[in-house]
Amino acid sequence: MDVLYLCSLILSIIVSVNCIMWTQEPNSQKCLREELQQNVVVLGEYEVSEAPGQKIDYVVRDSKGHILSQHEDVSKGKFSFVTENYDTFEICFVSHVPQHQRGIAQEVSLITKHGVEAKSYEGIGEAAKLKPIEVELKKLEDLSEDIVQDFSVMRKREEEMRDTNESTNSRVLYFSIFSMACLLGLATWQVLYLRRYFKAKKLIE
């Protein structure tokens, strides 16, 4: 039981939950970006303080500009989406204030969950009639799979960076050799040219 408690504690530390709060200035935009793996469920919950006559919209999109979730004039709500590819995703909140009105700052809070934390294990446990310990073990199993997948992606990116580094080193070497050859060729040409010039002027024999 102590081992299970310890594992649950580690799980609560590692799972990906982001909670942030900021002050949205009138007619401004605030974007939050994060890199996510493929087929990751993302849940979000937001709350915006009231300001008469003002409104705040939010939009979720990927690096290619595809809109995954969007809503206008929000106050409090939730959103969710599933990533199709490994990409950088951004959540933007945009403030709009009428021209004739002097805007005031609004408080915005955002909670995002993805990975293990985004799954409803209570519902999974009830559907499969699992015991609480079995539900916790299921969480740990999914977390282990996520960690293994993250390490696999990190290893792949490290290999790509190493290949790029080796390719860059080779190109720099070839460019250095080419530059040295050009400098030696130019120096030789200058010596021969000056030699002919001085001979033509009969300054040297």
Automatic annotation (TrEMBL):
PROSITE patterns with a match to the protein in the record: GOLD
Signal peptide: 1-19
Compartmental location: Membrane
Xref: InterPro entries: Emp24-like, GOLD_dom
Superkingdom of source: Eukaryota
The keyword Nucleotide-binding appears for this protein: no
Record's bilayer topology term: Single-pass type I membrane protein
Keyword RNA-binding in annotation: no
SMART domains: EMP24_GP25L (SM01190)
Key words of the record: Developmental protein, Membrane, Signal, Transmembrane, Transmembrane helix
Transmembrane regions: 172-194
Domain GOLD: 29-139
Family matches, as PANTHER family: TRANSMEMBRANE EMP24 DOMAIN-CONTAINING PROTEIN
GO cellular component, one term: membrane
Record's protein name: GOLD domain-containing protein
Family: Belongs to the EMP24/GP25L family.
